[in-house]
Automatic annotation (TrEMBL):
Residues spanning the membrane: none
SUPFAM superfamilies found in the cross-reference section: CoA-dependent acyltransferases
Species per Swiss-Prot/TrEMBL record: Medicago truncatula
Alphabetical list of InterPro entries matching this protein: CAT-like_dom_sf
Protein name as catalogued: Condensation domain-containing protein
Amino acid sequence: MSTVETKGRNVGGTECSWCKAIRGGTGIAVLSLLITKPIDISRFQTSLHKLQNSHPILRSKLHTSSSSTDTTFSFLTSHTPFIKIESHNINVTSNILAKNKNDTVSISPLQQIMEHELNRNTWQDRTGIDTDMFVASIYAMPDEKTWVVVMRLHVAACDRTTAVSLLRELLVLMKDEEKEENVVVVEDVVPLAIEDLVPGRKGKKHIWARGLDVLSYSVNSFRFTNLKFNDTKNARFSQVVRMQLNQTDTKRVLDGCKQSRIKLCGAITAAGLMAAHSNKTNSSKKYGIITLTDCRSTLDPPLSNHNFGFYHAAILNNHVIKGGESLWELAKRTYGAFANSKNNDKHFTDMADMNFLMSKAIENPGLTSSLRTSIMSVFEDTVVDDDGMMQQEVGVEDYMGCASVHGLGPSMGIFDTIRDGRLDCVCVYPAPLHAREQMQELINKMKAILIEGGKTYEEY
Ligand SMILES: *[C@@H]1O[C@H](CO)[C@@H](O)[C@H](O)[C@H]1NC(C)=O
Ligand SMILES: *[C@@H]1O[C@H](CO)[C@@H](O)[C@H](O)[C@H]1NC(C)=O
Ligand SMILES: *[C@@H]1O[C@H](CO)[C@@H](O)[C@H](O)[C@H]1NC(C)=O
Ligand SMILES: *[C@@H]1O[C@H](CO)[C@@H](O)[C@H](O)[C@H]1NC(C)=O
Ligand SMILES: *[C@@H]1O[C@H](CO)[C@@H](O)[C@H](O)[C@H]1NC(C)=O
Ligand SMILES: *[C@@H]1O[C@H](CO)[C@@H](O)[C@H](O)[C@H]1NC(C)=O
């Protein structure tokens, strides 16, 4: 059959915000894997086709249509898989790696390729052209023994839960590739948008309350980053700093969280705030923190991690830091503020307001050029990855995953994973607004604060 039947649906409010934001570069999700075994490209492609078969959003294209007053977006879902892997030879890779040659902070080839892909925006302004939500590339590395495999997705199709499931399912498919394949269409249509799955009573709010919230968000939220900007003029892109703790240090921090009855995001938030504030002796400052929470299990009907798409909601809390706080005291305070907002369903009730503010920020680039919505975004739940054995089996030596944040959003987006007992954070920030040296220094401080806190929690 050569004709490809398509189905579709219009995007929801949150997805629409991502469709608009991505034009400025925010919302490109990248999962990159360092592979140490030769890859059979056609088999890899078969695995990706199976993934597309199981997940309609992965075999969807984004259709954009513009009128004089508005732009609308919709997903067009093909009946059959169509992904084609883009293959880059060593020369191409070498040229990409050469760009960072003179940097004072050295970064791994895997990270360099990931940064390159984070800034490849195939969704920029493509009115009239339908663009794939999911693309894959392979880079041959100059050592001639390794490859970097990259999957790049539009965030409207891929929140962090999706990225984690995608990696897991892909590994299983690659491991079982010897087995007889039988390609079955498991899912036929893209699941509904998050707004259409919010439990009935939670999405509504009294008009006056909504007005107040919009006001407080817009007055408050655009100011509270408080990190120094290096370059506000030149075009922006995303860069990454990686923070890794060993097993001993990780266990101590996790024990501290358990003792304090908080999730790890509380400790990460507190360490980030303390690091950012460490230069400001004597003054007290207010900082905005965005916590992203996966809503799948609380939707009506609930979704599973197998339902790919964007089903996170954001909660914004502001915190005043005076200096002299202890890690666990601050972690309890920040986590408590978040947990309280979540108990009050703020992530559901404020969803429309957050989308409204996001669109205002996108429409007013002048505002976002020097003013960021918050200093940091974190995820409520850490990804725990104990698939190390399976990864080794298919030759995955290392991997990194995150989404671009420049153009809008926080000074730093933190994507944390606990991988075989070690904390591994990918921290994304907008460059050249922030310089790599500055962010590396900030992350070093944050790491030191976490490690120190891990040693002192018993005394607290
Ligand atoms: C790579 O570059 C070298 C030197 O510039 C050239 O000789 C070679 O043909 C190139 N290889 C490929 C595959 O393009
Ligand atoms: C790196 O530095 C050398 C010598 O200063 C210069 O010639 C080259 O253009 C620089 N490369 C990049 C990518 O900036
Ligand atoms: C973990 O890192 C700390 C430094 O933060 C170091 O003192 C310790 O020896 C390391 N432990 C292991 C098991 O590598
Ligand atoms: C901090 O405050 C103290 C007392 O108010 C003052 O003496 C000191 O100079 C201040 N330090 C800085 C760095 O502003
Ligand atoms: C800061 O920005 C300037 C341009 O405004 C640039 O020349 C400089 O390299 C940047 N500093 C760092 C450390 O990136
Ligand atoms: C903190 O202050 C030092 C010295 O004034 C400066 O070099 C550094 O960039 C500052 N760090 C941050 C994260 O702003």
